[in-house]
Amino acid sequence: MSSGSLLSTSLTAGESASPRIVGGHGAWFRLADGREVIDASNTAAPLGHCHPEIIEAVRQAADAPVINEGWHWAERDEAADDLLGIAFDGEDWAGAVRFFISASEANDAALALCQALTGRRDLATRERAYHGGAGLARELTVQPQWHGGLAGAGSSAAPPRLATVHELPAPGGARVTGQPDPTAGSDWLPAAREQLASSAAVLLDYSQGGIYHSPHYQDRVAALAAAEGTYWIADETVTGFGRVGGWFQFQHGQARPDLVTMGKCLSAGGAAAGAVVLSRKLLDRLDGTTWQSYSTYRAHPVAMAAIRAHLRVSSRDGLYQRAAELDEVMHKRLAEVAAQHPSVERIDGRGLHWTIELRGPDWRNWRGEDANPLASRVVERALEAGALIATSGEQTSLFLAPPLVITDAELAVIFDSVHRGLELADAELAASIA
């Protein structure tokens, strides 16, 4: 999509469903036309917009010298200490932190490290995963519309693959609409074991593509990986720092990963940032070596200050538990959505991250041919009622992810907007079967 001189990409097709934002505060966006609407789908803003402590931290860091990754900087050491001491408190297996510019870069570097350590080229993830848009992270982004190539009417092309990628079955059940979990049994385990036996690493996330956390699934994959000498990387880019309740989703299972990657919400929107946390066991494996990966702007002073401020605010105010407190509220309200709207096929989620899938073409078959897909039209209608929700770039998927500071009154506006948007989908469904 082109906007004047800017070549841009939007998750939501259509200009009216992607409004021009000129400001924000708390859970609200201010639009160029003067309206204020609730930001209902932004996983990079756990503290909302323009949080005063994030702003102050960034201002204080703005006069820091230009410090590249190869030079020591006290704030960087302190940020690593804070990350392990606060978000990983009690996780004694966690050993050290490496900072990056984004989760895409963190995933790419972590995967390359695992390839180097194992001598294996293959990698594994689960069906419908999204892990970023750079290097090996892009390779493990198996949602077809985000392959880094082209999509559109008469044109769909993906770049050549950098690695052989194995797709494990995903725990694709649904709490709200009752679809069963296809990984609840054991039939899939032998094939998964074979795939992991040739893989350097398996990268698991906990929300992308509308696939949500299953502790049982995580622990089974972790056990298979350990048995086959495959590293397990937990991608907490979206679900980390309270989005789904608690500091991280892997903590709801028994197994512990070899590496944890994060980004997006890590700095609460104060600056671009990512990170990898390595286990003590992996650190022992690296003893006597140097991880040959370097970048000028990793661990930038502004990013470090924003990360430390985020950790301080979230731990002090208990915001990392906020989503867990709202889980049942969200479940109840979304059950009402499913009951009232025949256009809804599936709803699943946890805490403050939920996916609503509409009846329509299967996500596997969509390549961006429709310039104004149904999900985008629903978003446009919902925006008129006061909330900006988003799609996952598909024909029929919507997701809700408001800030952790959301109030009950603001949630009510979001659900009023969801109902308003789905009225459009209901009408189109009724017309199609009339």
Question: Got a strand count?
Answer: 19
User: Beta fraction of the residues?
Assistant: 15-25%
Q: Please state the structural category.
A: alpha/beta
Which ranges are low-confidence, i.e. pLDDT below 50, for 5 or more consecutive residues? none
> How many domains make up the 3D coordinates?
2
Query: What is the number of helical segments per DSSP (H or I, 4+ residues)?
Result: 11
CATH class (first level) name of the largest domain: Alpha Beta
Mean pLDDT: 92
**C-alpha-based Rg, rounded:** 21 Å
**Euclidean distance between termini CA atoms:** 35 Å
Shape category: globular
- Level of helix content? 25-40%
Following the backbone from N to C, one meets helices and strands in this order, namely EEEEEHHEHEHEEEHEHEEEHHHEEHEEEH
The named CATH superfamily of the largest domain: Type I PLP-dependent aspartate aminotransferase-like (Major domain)
Largest sheet: 7 strands, mixed
CATH topology of the largest domain: Aspartate Aminotransferase, domain 2
Tell me the strand order in the biggest sheet: 6-14-13-12-11-7-10
Report on the structure:
With 434 residues, the protein is an alpha/beta fold. The protein has 2 domains: 148 residues, Aspartate Aminotransferase, domain 1; 266 residues, Aspartate Aminotransferase, domain 2. It contains 11 helices and 19 strands. A 7-stranded mixed sheet has the order 6-14-13-12-11-7-10, with helices on both faces. Strand 11, helix 6 and strand 12 form a beta-alpha-beta unit. Helix 1 packs antiparallel against helix 8, helix 5 packs across helix 6 and helix 10 packs across helix 11. It is globular and about 70 Å long.
